[in-house]
TrEMBL record, chain A:
Source organism per UniProt: Jiangella anatolica
GO MF entries: ATP binding; proton-transporting ATP synthase activity, rotational mechanism
Gene name of the encoded protein: atpC
Function: Produces ATP from ADP in the presence of a proton gradient across the membrane.
Keyword field: ATP synthesis, Cell membrane, CF(1), Hydrogen ion transport, Ion transport, Membrane, Transport
Protein name (Swiss-Prot/TrEMBL): ATP synthase epsilon chain
Subunit field text: F-type ATPases have 2 components, CF(1) - the catalytic core - and CF(0) - the membrane proton channel. CF(1) has five subunits: alpha(3), beta(3), gamma(1), delta(1), epsilon(1). CF(0) has three main subunits: a, b and c.
Domain named ATP synthase F1 complex delta/epsilon subunit N-terminal: residues: 5-84
GO CC annotation: plasma membrane; proton-transporting ATP synthase complex
Protein's cellular compartments: Cell membrane
Membrane association type: Peripheral membrane protein
SUPFAM superfamilies hit by this protein: Epsilon subunit of F1F0-ATP synthase N-terminal domain (SSF51344)
Automatic annotation (TrEMBL), chain B:
Organism per entry: Jiangella anatolica
Record's subcellular location: Cell membrane; Membrane
Subunit-level organization: F-type ATPases have 2 components, CF(1) - the catalytic core - and CF(0) - the membrane proton channel. CF(1) has five subunits: alpha(3), beta(3), gamma(1), delta(1), epsilon(1). CF(0) has three main subunits: a, b and c.
Family statement drawn from the similarity comment of this UniProt entry: Belongs to the ATPase gamma chain family.
Function: Produces ATP from ADP in the presence of a proton gradient across the membrane. The gamma chain is believed to be important in regulating ATPase activity and the flow of protons through the CF(0) complex.
Pfam family, one: ATP-synt
Name of this chain's protein: ATP synthase gamma chain
UniProt entry tagged with the keyword rRNA-binding: no
Chief location category: membrane
A molecular function GO annotation: ATP binding
Keywords: ATP synthesis, Cell membrane, CF(1), Hydrogen ion transport, Ion transport, Membrane, Transport
Length: 123, 323
């Protein structure tokens, strides 16, 4: 591909990551979606979990998101989540504590804690 | 006389320590304004992307959400009143409360019930003191609001608007908060958050974007092409569907609106506090000067009296000796 994807991962209160990428893999309610340059415009919901961004230099960035959505148009990808953390930033102890406090009743905060743990475990 | 001088010196000392405190408060407030503005700046990319996505989804989805379509005759309204937790901020909280009372009066004239949701200890104590009922109170974060705080408020408001008015819900949500124009000007604003007024926020973003694109391109031909591109939204594929995307976006949008309002109010609060503390410092300085003058003249008066007593005493002795 001649062009690269321009990716921005934005949380409600800050920009988490931005840069060039060759592929972005995220999870929507209907399954995983992989986006490469030249993809048609998409506006999709995300479920809590990992978003994987493979940079043009071959490096891989994994971000835990609490949900939110992703928009793709003209090789611009915006991933918007109320909460998002880079894999390296995740505080495993805090996430585990959150999960223990909430229990696994499957509501938003618990899923977010679980997503952080999963991403942290895979780093 | 000696007592007066001692009293004046005591007052000068206490004014001096008050001045030190208010001066410190002023400096703290100044640095907090900058920090509040940084937070507002950091939140901007999210707001912009969110508004763009909302526009795209709203174009294709059915618009029967209570957040988008109001009822014909609203009967109950929620007002989110954003005041401060701390004092020492001049009329900051008082202004907001006054404006919210004016809005409440207006809504009651239209035959609506008003349910206040109050942010900040000052507002909460104002409403509690008057025995008013309120829908919710949120304290201990106004100087430095986090997204989680905003999320909680937004969730409560959304619960209220998704409940029919007969069952204790509301039909409209208004917000009264302070907008930070610059360091010297902050204005209290009353806005309706939901149902969304179509011409409200998106228009502003449109203009801002168009302006930015044009100035970025410089050339007139490139500018018009870029402007045309911002007007036509790309034909998005929705995943899973436009309706579901919009339904998921609206709560996020609500959270974002509350969050930006809280940040704006926080910057305003610190600016109001800085101004109040600067005035207090200036006043303390003036008072100190006046008191110093008074104490000087008291000291002079004391000396003068002592001299005249000595002279008078000496005269009396001389007169007694010569007899």
């Amino acid at each position: 591909m001649a062009e690269d994807l321009n990716v921005e991962v934005v949380a409600a209160d800050r920009k988490v990551w931005s840069g060039e990428a060759s592929i972005v893999i995220a999870r929507t309610p209907e399954g995983e979606i992989g986006i490469m340059p030249g993809h048609e415009p998409v506006l999709g919901l995300l479920v809590a979990g990992a978003v994987t961004v493979r940079g043009t230099g071959g490096e891989t960035v994994v971000v835990a998101v609490s949900g939110g959505f992703l928009s793709v148009s003209e090789n611009q990808i915006a991933i918007l989540a109320e909460q998002a953390e880079l894999a390296d930033e995740i505080d495993v102890a805090a996430a585990q504590a959150d999960l223990d406090a909430l229990g696994e009743d499957g509501d938003g905060a618990a899923r977010w804690a679980q997503a952080r743990l999963d991403v942290a475990a895979s780093r | 006389m000696g007592a007066q001088l001692r009293e004046l010196r005591q007052r000068i000392r206490s004014v001096d320590s008050i001045k030190k405190i208010t001066r410190a408060q002023e400096l703290i407030a100044t640095s907090r304004i900058a920090r509040a503005q940084q937070f507002a700046e950091a939140a901007r990319p999210y707001s912009q992307a969110l508004v763009r996505a909302m526009e795209a989804a709203a174009e294709r989805a059915r618009l029967d959400n209570p957040l988008l379509e109001g009822v014909e005759e609203p009967r109950r309204s929620a007002i989110l009143v954003v005041t401060s937790d701390g004092g020492f901020a001049g009329a900051y909280s008082a202004n907001v409360i006054r404006q919210s009372e004016a809005l409440a009066g207006l809504l009651r004239e239209q035959g609506q019930e008003v349910v206040p949701y109050v942010v900040g200890k000052k507002g909460v104590s104002w409403f509690t003191f008057r025995g008013r009922e309120f829908g919710g109170s949120y304290v201990d974060f106004t100087g430095k609001p986090s997204y989680a705080d905003a999320r909680k408020i937004a969730d409560d408001l959304l619960d209220a608007i998704n409940t029919p008015a007969e069952e204790g819900g509301v039909d409209e949500i208004h917000i009264v908060s302070t907008h930070f124009r610059n360091m010297v000007t902050q204005e209290v604003r009353a806005r309706r958050l939901f149902p969304i007024m179509v011409e409200d926020v998106p228009e502003e973003v449109h203009r801002a974007e168009a302006g930015a694109v044009r100035s970025g391109n410089g050339g007139s031909s490139g500018g018009s092409a870029a402007a045309a591109r911002t007007d036509v939204l790309p034909l998005y594929e929705f995943e899973p569907s436009a309706d579901e995307v919009l339904d998921a976006l609206l709560p996020q949008y609500a959270g974002n609106l509350v969050y930006t309002a809280l940040l704006d109010a926080a910057a305003s609060e610190w600016a109001a506090r800085r101004r109040a503390m600067k005035n207090a410092t200036d006043n303390a300085g003036e008072l100190q000067e006046t008191l110093t003058r008074q104490s000087n003249s008291a000291r002079q008066a004391e000396i003068t009296q002592e001299i005249s007593e000595i002279v008078g005493g000496a005269d009396a002795l001389a007169a007694a000796g010569s007899e």
